[in-house]
Structure formats: C-alpha cells, structure tokens
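In this supplementary section we document a worked example of the pipeline. Step one takes a protein sequence of length 151 as its only input; no multiple sequence alignment statistics are reported here. Step two produces a three-dimensional model, which step three serialises into structure tokens for compact storage. The input and output of this example are shown verbatim.
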Amino acid sequence: MREYILERTQIIPQSRETVFGFFSDPRNLELITPPWLHFKILTNPLPQGAGSIFDYTLRVRGIPIRWRTLIEEFVTNEYFIDRQIRGPYQLWHHTHTFKTLPDGSTEMKDRVRYIIGWGFLGTLAHALWVQRDLQAIFDYRYQVIETHFRR
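The serialised model returned by step three reads:
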C-alpha cells in the first residue's frame, strides 16, 4: 500500500482573510472543480468548522462516485484539513494552509496525502490514470483561482 503526496503552492493577490473565506465556503468547490467531474454538493452548504461533514457526488471517467468529507481541523485564516470518510480512496487527507506575504498577498498551499489501495492494481491505476487526473484537476483549480482573484 503506497502513500502518494500531491503538493501545490499558489500566490493569490488578496488578503489571507479574503482567500481563506473563499476556500472555507463549500459552495465554492463547484466553481473550482473541473466541469468534466460533474461535481455536485449534496449537503446544505453551511460554513465549515472542525467536525463539519459534507456529502457530494462526482463522476470520474464516467463512473459515479459519492464522497463524504470530514473537516478534521479548522483554524480560521490559517489552515484546515479535510479527510475523505467515504469515497474512492483508502486515504485522502488534504491540508490547506494560508500565509500572508510581506506584500499583503496570500500564499496558499495544498498538500494531499492519498492511498489508492487495491495492491498492484492500485499502483497500476495510479501510473495510468490517477496521477494524471489529479494533476489535471489541480491545474484546472489553479487557473480558475488565478482568474477569480485577479479580476
């Protein structure tokens, strides 16, 4: 069982409070998720906090998936951690951190630890599809965030 890590850093020309507010609103997941995933939030989009749980659906390569996320930790304007408690991964642990830079912009970091499971088949799926799909999803997010915060 191999653990993989995906890390991304993005500088956003807005205050940390503004950026954190955007990412802590679950409704914005639909905006930053690629349309080809057909992402739909199912739970009432209440503000996040430690212990919050959100259900949503998406389609990966045409396969419908139900996903449930638990917000494990939440420190306003600093970071939050979400963990998949139901979904396709054996482990999905996503840390979002926000840091104010000297010029007033915000450094946002995503760090995702994930395990696919399924032994050799999971390793093969990662090499053939999963890694590439995750890169495409986070590339899309990057572009949407750039456009959204630079208008």
